[in-house]
Amino acid sequence: MNQFSPKTLLAGLAVATALTSVSAALPAQAAELRMAWSQDATGLDPHKQTAFSSLRLLELIYEPLVRLDADLNVVPAIASSWEFAEDARTLTFTIDSNAKFSDGAAVTSADVKASFERLLDEATSAAARSNFLSIESIDTPDDATVVFNLSIPDVPILVAMATINAAVMPAAEIEAGTVGTEAIGSGPFVLESWEPNAREVLSANENWGGGELAIDGITISVLPDEMAILASLRAGQTDFALLNDPLVATLVPMEAGLELNRVGVLNYNVLQLNPSRPPMDNLLVRQAMSCAIDRQEIIDAALAGEGKVTGPLTMPAFAQDPANLFCYEQDLDRAKELMAESGVDGFSATVIAATGEPPVAASEAQVLQAQLAEIGIDLEIEMMELNVYVDAWLAGDFDMAVAQNGGRPDPYPMYNRYFTKEGNLAHVSNFPDDELDSLMKQGQAETDPAKRVEIFQAFESRLAEQSPWLWLSTGYSYTAQRESVSGFTPSPTGTLFGLVNVSVE
Amino acid sequence: MTGLLSVRDLRVGFGQNPKANEVVKGVSFDLGPGETLGIVGESGSGKSVSALSINRLVDFGGGRITHGSIQLTRSDGTVLDVAKADEKTLLGIRGRDVGMIFQEPMTSLNPVHTVGAQIEEAFRLSKGLTGAQAHKATLDVLGRVRIPDAQSRLGYYPHQLSGGMRQRIMIAMALAASPRVLIADEPTTALDVTVQAQIMALLAELREETGMAMIFITHDIGLVAGIADRIMVMQNGVAVEQGETDGVLDNPQHDYTRHLLRAVPHFTSGKAVRDDGRRAEQQEPIVKVDNLVVRFPVGKAWFKPKGAIHAVDGVSFDLVPGETLAIVGESGCGKSTTARALLGLNSKTRGEIVTEAGRSVRPVQMVFQDPFASLNPRLNVEALLAEPAIANGQRRDDALRERMTFLLDRVGLPQDALTRYPHQFSGGQRQRLCIARALMLNPDVVVLDEAVSALDVSVQAKVLELLVDLQQEFGLAYLFISHDMAVVERIAHRIAVMFAGQIVELGEARAVLSDPQHSYTKRLIAAVPAIERRKQRFAVDMTQVPSLVRPPGFEPSPAQWREAGDDHRVRVEDTP
Amino acid sequence: MGKMMSSLFRHPSGRIGLVIIGLYLLAAILGTLGLTPHDPLKLFAIDRLKAPSQTYWFGTDLLGRDAFSRLMVGIRQSMLIAFASVAIATIAGTIIGLLSAWWGGIWDGIFMRVMDVLLAFPAILLALLIIAIVGPGTMTSVAAIAIVYTPIFARVVRGPALSLKQRDFVDAARTFGSSQGYVLTRHLLLNLVAPLVVQVTLALAWALLTEAGLSFLGLGTQPPTPSLGLMLAESRNLMTHAPWLMIFPAVTIMLGILGFNLTGDALRDILDPRTQRREA
Amino acid sequence: MSYVVQRLLTFPLILLGVSILVFVAIRLVPGDAITAMLGTEAGLLTPVQRETLAAYFGIDQPIWAQYLRWLTGLFQGDLGISSIYGKPVLTVILERFPLTLQLSLMSMVIALSVGVPLGVLAASRNERPSDLVVRVLAMLGQSTPNFVVGILIIYVLSVFFGFVPAMGTFTPLFTDPLASIAQLIFPAITLGFAFAASVTRISRSAMLDVLSDDYVRTARSKGASPMSVIWHHALPNALIPVVTLSGVEFGYLLGGAVIVEQIFALPGLGRLVLDAITQRDYALVQGTVLFIAFNFLVVNLLVDLAYVALDPRIRIGRR
């Protein structure tokens, strides 16, 4: 779900410095970090889990071949270096000699091959499988090198590998089938114990290839009510916490002794329309709606100002300034003109949203309802329990849907599922469009980064102009910590990998 | 002799403004040591409130002594004005100087403590006895009140004992503190006649033994004649007459006392029997009951029942139009069950009930004992009276309304009663309402199950007169169920005496009352309090009411009858 | 009915209870008719999270809507849910309780076992499941609360009905041959009014509490129509930002429940047969 | 004791009813375990992938087959495997139950130790100021939603006292009694607040009834002191309705106080079922609901037995 593309793809290739262990000066006595979050992981199998909360935990236990740094550049993880062939149809990785699993065994090419074979095997029902369909075969010339032979030129695959869903696990574990229960990974921490929906205890993994940690373990408590997390931070019972609700996050800076880390994320808030259902099949109506809404006011009201207006592309490398996208400034007169032109003088529809997921969904729906009423659109809000919402969303069974979808560093894996003819979720967007489909295909094959940016910016402009969806804003990921905690670097992907450099007085 | 207790101009009021609504309006009387004062009056006369003022229990009932003094001479000779005493000193006199027993044996003992514990508490409070001493004292006081095998009874709980037994426990508890004066507030009203006789005998005997004074409160002037040295008659909070027992009974001065002595039914062993209806031989009976048996299973329903209560075991009688048959007996003898079986309210196990097709579709109607319970509080009189008619298909039309007003007038109720609700009537008026309702369908037979027992004595008299008039006017047959011999004497043409589910004596009223044959009938009549039998020595005997639970398959021996007169039959008794 | 109202007004706690419920009903009616200081659904974009002031008596919420107007509509919504669910529970519970007491035997067994099943089922979970199946919203809240409360009503009715069945005036009705329907309605039902009325007021208080609880879990009334519970839940994370957003709905809920409880207590004293008998 | 046997016979019947109700209800809820686990990514699954997952969750067979399999397992005490925990459902429940049990017991202790004395005080000082104060307090107690009380407690504690009860996990009583009690004392007060209010009102009205009974008048006529009238004569009789109420309320609490567990972040039964429903862990939902229902029936039976123990009229028949 969270694959990322490098800022400059080929430039990264040249950088192959093996990261030797980074040993910052060790504090005298390594303490234990007490952490809290409101939603707990729902499973331990990195290939199968997709929920944000699960990924946050697994990113500390497992490691993929490569990783993304805070600026979304592909950096080494298990693989110390990698190389794309000229025709981008073979990709070779060299494994870092220090990379070891938590049980001490070294990570070998056999483990990488076994892991990817498990990923591609339909029986595993790995959600990320659709991103690696281009892998034809995997060769392991020696323990330290792995060669991927691709059926078609697939540049974004490297970024796709930089996610925990493509984690490498010991071949032995795969045979034994204990991947879901025994969490043996090569990540910075080892899972000592897990009481679902109550607590996780992690200890530092001495065998970690990335070097010595400043803390000797983390205990994560699950506090479902975020105000309780705030109270716990304030009372010093918790050192570090992950927060979802922007309203609670804005309270942190006001507390003495607490700091808020805030970083823009790639996930985007969107109002998905359903172009297969009249009158939304009429382009003019969709455009009128895009002009009618005031995106900044939605941010100010529903997100308490915690967000910024965005077009379809949320990653800095590709995104255009929203101002020059179609109708990103609220223009009621133009909206009314378009509505008049479309021959539809207002209609009523229902918009679905999931209760509490994201926390601001209900407020967004109500603000949109008020704004769209200005041009005669009578919206009825239907709040749903999360899974009931997902069921309806997957079936495309809605007029409109307030959603928060995951973003990617590379536009291809982000939108190929929705806006390509054979995309898995084409029936969710209900917007088959040849031009968008061909732009997507070109982007996948094009190796020159400058050209890829051009292609995807054209893709973005068309999406804004066609408005199958109304892209609204991107939010932030929040973590709060006490003064005694230092060294954490937040990342746009929302990963907590930054905890490896954290130290506690 | 120095007075033990002298009450001067006592006034007691209730509510926020006690002075405004006084219940006792200036009562004065004296009580010497060892003397017994009988206070007689109907409900609302203030007799109980006066008694409850002597140990100031009236304060807990929301009453306040507004005026007057109660001089009590305590055992150590000091004189205390109870009316002015504070709660702490009152604690001292309650129990030690002034003991008390109450009317309702069912609720006057604490259900969650054993009988023994409650008596020991009395000893602990008054005499400071504890542990073994209190236990021994309790045992011997139980013996004094004639409770058989006292040792095992100690561990019993109140609900395991009969009414009479519980009243003995109450007396034992009062005796524990050997009070100088015992106040008995209608102690036997809730008991059967024979049990009442035993309690009265016990009280007389204990009074001799301890020499304690006693204030005996009752509504039954006959009862007080047997025990009181002096009598005080109260009406509406005022003592209308007071004096030596013989003086008050033989030449009553106040007309209310005369009313109590004459108008109110008193048992005269058959002299006051009705003489208006001779049973003509050839008249066909309107109701015939032949060998009626009613049994209730005991034990688990789906397992084999462990036995059955033989409530009614082979009862036969018949009823001729215009005639009143009274069934008399003590509680548990099966008289009510028989009546209810006649109406189909209890399903009969065996035997036939044959009712001739009379004037109306429902020839047999019933009047219940408790006027409060037999009228639906939520319906007004018109709806109540209309119910029988509607149940049988008549419409609420003018004809029906006309019949209602006619009957209301006939039973002596005001015309505007139709729109009012039951709680706006007195007990007597409500019973008249029930009678009117029973007559709505113009029945041939009316079953009266203890119809007047719940009423005040003077009201009882008026209702009985009404019943007799209605019987003559409409040619009704009455089946009159009662435990009160005085009432039965006034209304019955023929009497059936029931004991343990069987009729033991049946016949013309005068014969049965003046010349009882069966041993139980004799005992029953002997136990009835009567004005002539003053200061009579009651023999204290302890026969218990036999239990009606029989093992499965048990059948009573067939009845043999002995003719003791042309219309007077007696059941032959197995044991002499 | 009039008689009950006048004696209710004389009763000390009854008077306060009636005044509160009166205010509640007034607010609900005005709310329904839209006679509120501001349009409860209109977003005053510039006036977000304003403290109580002249223009906005109870301040404004996160989206800039007037809290006082929303409170009035909220009262209507909560009262609607409370009254509707309790009405259903009363009718269903009374019928089941009455028939089960009147028929007795196996019918009594079957009805009571079904009621036991509903009672044994954890109340809030039964509500969750119903809401999850049908989807949150006003009608589902009503159904959930009604289903959870029906067994309680059935038991409250069955007890007194059993004792009424033994009363003499029911026997008397049998001797007249009154029809089963007549006895059930005129004799049993009419005399069950007292315990029922008391239970209804307590049920209303409980329903308000439950609606608030469901909304807190996000399962009660759905935006944008506010209910008291929803306003409370929405203000949860703004507790320090804007305390007034929590205080006013919380106090209103407490006041409403207090009103119902006070009236319930007063009714119990007035309708209690024991007190009636003493008056006679 | 045949009464107890009779009641026990009804248990299986009721539990069967509950099992059918929960089994059908949870399956009627849209969105199955797959959507619960994968969320929107479930759309990317190929048919083959979806079938393997359905088999893993055991939701591929027809509904009655699933019920039969579950029921037969039930008789051997096997409630099935929870898909969230990967452990037998019974083990998961027994891990979470001590918290709910201890919390319910503590709330009841608080409720009774506060409610009964206040009720008795109010009854003995009927219509005087202290009676009015107690009645208003009890009324307020019953009108406050417990989550408002909870939120306020947490806010006040953390802001003014810089302390907050231990959250996240539960320290069992036997490992560290002090910490365990300290952790649950505030949630117990939150739950006990309304519970105490209703106990106060019930004890007050029960005491008032009993004080107007005849045997209290008899006790006074024996010269019993006001204290012994209240505590020795009146209270034992007034306790019967109090026991019934607190027993039923305790039965409800055993079902887990979802909201209070949510606010105080306590892993009790309430949250266990809520999470199980959210993640569509059918076996866990069914197992927990049955467990809670069973507890409810046992507690009700205990209440009836307490009733019999307290009231000799029921304990010992006529003779």
From TrEMBL, chain A:
This chain's protein is named ABC transporter substrate-binding protein
Q: Which InterPro entries match?
A: Peptide/Ni-bd, SBP_5, SBP_5_dom
- For this UniProt record, give its keywords in alphabetical order, as a comma-separated list: Signal, Transport
Please name the GO terms that the record assigns under molecular function: peptide transmembrane transporter activity
| Matches recorded under Pfam families | SBP_bac_5
Q: Where in the cell is it found?
A: Periplasm
Q: Is Transcription regulation among this UniProt entry's keywords?
A: no
Similarity comment? Belongs to the bacterial solute-binding protein 5 family.
Q: Which residues form the signal peptide?
A: 1-30
For the Solute-binding protein family domain, which residue ranges apply?
Answer: 73-423
Q: Would you name any one GO CC term?
A: outer membrane-bounded periplasmic space
UniProtKB/TrEMBL annotation, chain B:
Q: What is its EC number?
A: 7.4.2.10
This protein's record includes keyword Ion transport? no
Class of this enzyme? translocase
Q: Where is the ABC transporter domain?
A: 7-261, 287-525
Q: Where is this region: Disordered?
A: 550-576
Annotated membrane topology: Peripheral membrane protein
* Any matching Pfam family: oligo_HPY
Record InterPro entries? AAA+_ATPase (IPR003593), ABC_transp_ATP-bind (IPR050319), ABC_transporter-like_ATP-bd (IPR003439), ABC_transporter-like_CS (IPR017871), Oligopep_ABC_C (IPR013563), P-loop_NTPase (IPR027417)
Q: Name one GO molecular function term.
A: ATP hydrolysis activity
Q: Which UniProt keywords apply?
A: ATP-binding, Cell inner membrane, Cell membrane, Hydrolase, Membrane, Nucleotide-binding, Repeat, Translocase, Transport
Tell me which Gene3D superfamilies the record gives.
P-loop containing nucleotide triphosphate hydrolases
Keyword check for Membrane, yes or no. yes
So what does this one do?
Part of the ABC transporter complex GsiABCD involved in glutathione import. Responsible for energy coupling to the transport system.
Q: How does it assemble?
A: The complex is composed of two ATP-binding proteins (GsiA), two transmembrane proteins (GsiC and GsiD) and a solute-binding protein (GsiB).
Query: What name is this protein filed under?
Result: Glutathione import ATP-binding protein GsiA
Native source organism of the sequence:
Devosia marina
From TrEMBL, chain C:
One annotated GO biological process: transmembrane transport
Membrane-spanning parts: 16-35, 79-102, 114-134, 140-157, 188-209, 244-264
Organism placement in taxonomy: Bacteria, Pseudomonadati, Pseudomonadota, Alphaproteobacteria, Hyphomicrobiales
Q: What is this protein called?
A: ABC transporter permease subunit
Annotated family: Belongs to the binding-protein-dependent transport system permease family.
InterPro entries in UniProt: BP-dependent_transpt_permease, MetI-like, MetI-like_sf
Give the keywords, sorted.
Cell membrane, Membrane, Peptide transport, Protein transport, Transmembrane, Transmembrane helix, Transport
Q: What organism, scientifically named, is this protein from?
A: Devosia marina
As for membrane topology, the entry says:
Multi-pass membrane protein
* Domain of life from the UniProt record: Bacteria
Automatic annotation (TrEMBL), chain D:
Q: Which residues form the ABC transmembrane type-1 domain?
A: 97-303
Q: Does the keyword Transmembrane apply?
A: yes
Q: Which Pfam families match?
A: BPD_transp_1, BPD_transp_1_N
Q: How does it sit in the membrane?
A: Multi-pass membrane protein
Which InterPro entries does this one have? BPD_transp_1_N (IPR045621), MetI-like (IPR000515), MetI-like_sf (IPR035906)
The keyword Transmembrane helix is assigned to this record: yes
* Keywords, alphabetical: Cell membrane, Membrane, Transmembrane, Transmembrane helix, Transport
SUPFAM superfamilies with a match to the protein in the record: MetI-like
Per the record, its GO cellular-component terms are: plasma membrane
| Segments crossing the lipid bilayer | 7-29, 103-123, 144-166, 178-199, 289-310
Q: Name one GO biological process term.
A: transmembrane transport
Location in the cell reads:
Cell membrane
Per the record, the similarity remark reads:
Belongs to the binding-protein-dependent transport system permease family.
Give the protein name, as stated in the record: ABC transporter permease subunit
Give the organism, scientific name. Answer: Devosia marina
